[in-house]
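Summary for the steering committee. The consortium agreed at its last meeting that each partner would contribute one worked example illustrating the joint modelling workflow. Our contribution is presented below. We chose a case with several input lines so that the handling of multiple components could be demonstrated. No manual editing was applied between input and output; the record is shown as generated.
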Amino acid sequence: MFKLFSRHSPRANAAPRDEAQEMILLTLERASENGRTLSPDDLARELSFPPAPHLQSLISQSLLRVDTSGALALTDSGRDRALALLRRHRLVERHFTDVLGLDWARAHEEADKLEHVVSAEAEQALAEQLGNPDTCPHGNPIPRARADSARAALTSLADCAPCSGAIIARIGLETPDGLRHLATLGLLPEVEIVVENQAPFGGPVMVRVGRAHYALGRDLAARIWVREIRD
Amino acid sequence: MSSCHTPTQHFGQTDLTIALAGNPNVGKSSLFNRLTGANVETANYPGKTVALNFGVTHFDGKRIGVVDLPGAYALGAQSEDQWVARQAVLEDPPDAVVAIADATNLERNLYLILQFLDLGLPLVVAVNLIDEAARTGVEIDAARLSRSLHVPVVPTIATRGKGVDQVLATVEHLACHQSTAPAYDSEIQAAVDALARTIRAANIEPPYGLAPRALAILLLEEDAWLARSVEQMPGGAAILARARELSAAIETRVGEPLSLHLPRARHELARAVARDAQIQHVTREPLSVKLWRWSIQPLTGVPTLIAVLVALFAFLFSAGGMLAESFAGFWETFISPPMQALIASVLGNGALGKIALWGLDAGIEAALEIGIPYVLLFYAVLAILEDSGYMNSIAFLLDALMRRLGLHGRAVIMLLAGAGCNVPAIMGTRVLTTRRERIIASTLVVLTPCSARIAVIAGGAAFFAGWQSGAAILLAALALLIAAGIGLNYLLRGRSDDLVMEMFPFRVPTPSVIARKTWYRFKEFLFMALPIVLVGSFAMGALYETGLVWLLSAPLAPIVEGWLGLPPIAGLTLIFATLRKELALQFLVTLAIAQYGASANDLLSFMTPHQLFVYALVNTVYIPCIATFAVLSKELGTRTALGIAAFTITLAVAVGGVARYVLAYGI
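What follows is the complete predicted structure of the assembly.
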């Protein structure tokens, strides 16, 4: 029973201090990419190590601040650091899938380790060798690449008005299994859907694809980005 | 549970075998029930929970084995139902796959059918629910659909048996006829052909005797399961490298990996085929669709949900109560007297005979009195809610609440099933994918008052201390359940799965499907919970008849008398009620008569209404019974089961004591 409630695995506790801090920055940036803000407790649930000891240090380095609602927010310099890491993570993923032929899940795991040690020089070489790709293998944008500015016009499915038509632009899931599962249901980028119902109090979103109706949990809906169709 | 590697062990000798495949909720079970009747065998793959059903039907003098595959939207290695459906047809290829498609949503259903065609299996398509489609203005041209897919297509209404014979006649003529592969765009086609050539050239034996083209498609879709088995073959690594190369080449051109591009192409083909084969007439939206829309709009849906749940429980307790009474009358008139005589003649009137009576007479009677009227009736109503589609509306409305408890909306069905008996409900949590969700769901099921505990609340607190007292206990149980869910969601690491659920308009439920579903859950109550409960009855009889029961009085005194303020015998019954929870009350009366004399059959003669309230509350909250504990250990391991038991016992003692002081000081 005690194991049941132990929140942190021993392996992750051994993460070096800098790496742990970088993981925190990355997790916050990924959440904000999907339109979420995280409280310290939310953050603890997303990570495999206790973040609390690192937060103060990040705040004192002016990389992180706590906003009035108690949520953690990256400062401008914090966000720059996070985007640089994210760019390395996603370039490494691309390299592993496109050049070395690893599957997506392995590529993601490997990139988690390497993102912390790739130098600026190596990053540049990777980007050039890969032809400056816009997205990672999962379809998420690589920061500071050409497509970065196109994101502004997108709305998350969780924020769409009911009875509106929309075209899926991007599905921000890191796991290929989740993407493939949605793909078998016909939920793919560039597919037209209709938002039929938004349940209140953070409940699910009901969308129609062709003649099929699906209820999607709010967290998932917040990661599906769409272009709304205006009449 | 048996493995299903040899279908003959389920069918005996057959002339033909067919596999029924289809999306969930398309009437597949109706067709299976219509074909096979009651004689059905169920089997699981080792370590898998999704079951396969086997039955036999006769047609045209032939004996036909029928496998009912789990309902799935696709055939992949990602989810268990998909994996089991595919594995069953790969390991034991049937003479024909009968794919059941929902005529009201042909496009989505064709995706799975195209995947079967990709595998190269002989196929017959049954376009079902054509009556329902007609009501929404959709007409399917079976001949056109058949021409597009190059397979026979039969329109059916499975619930009324329409078209079923024609399906079988078609299967008979089709047997082992290879189907034609669907044609995707030229780019995909070229990649598939190129990889198929590599596979042929490598001269390997494809797993499950798959055609090179079928294997090529699966590998290009990055099917992890088949990639693993190919990797181990000599020359397998080269095939996988070639697949990645081809996939990467397409990705640079189309901008997405082939594992997403192929599903997209399949959806596009499905849409084109469906549009070609269906004629849409203009009609008004049918009532069933309107009702369904109302049921998920918050303003109309939430009041409806509350009304439905109140009506459900009111019906169960009035109808269940009546049934239980007549059942008890029957038992006491016709079964009890001869059984008592028989036991007395075999074992005598001593302690041994009395212990046997505890188990065989009182034990079976009480278990059946709860089981048949309450649990069985409850499961029938639950199956109606599921089959009509209303359960999905409930899951939709409650997803936001359930998410705060660390579960998704569909888990609400497990909690509802727990109100019948906790045992099948805990077994039902297997469908949840993460251990975190299973632990949360199982703990919340344990905190859901089952029929037995509700009987104690109704017969003890509500009967002697007023209905408000009973209602207060139920509300307290609900509040504790929600609080426990929020707490566990906070404490347990990880994230729970998001809800992804198909929503479909209401349908008239099919009696045979209801019957089978009800039986499936009731069987778990009957064969899992009941035997353990009967052993408990003997144990309780032995402890009582030998007088050992009184030995526990003293060690329990500080908690029972000191903290909860209950008479010592009440504490004893709480301990022994873990063996037979619904008998807590009866046991209380028995011990009271033994201690205080015959007038004690009125509980109020030795307990105040407040004490009865505390007693029923504690009885409701702590670990329900040994049958529940046994199933928790089996499903989650003994340590977790002990953890859940310790948690509920602590919680029960804590809230019981708090309730005592709150009542005493009128806070």
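The first strand of chain A starts at residue 64 and ends at 66. Chain A touches chain B through 48 residues (CB under 8 Å).
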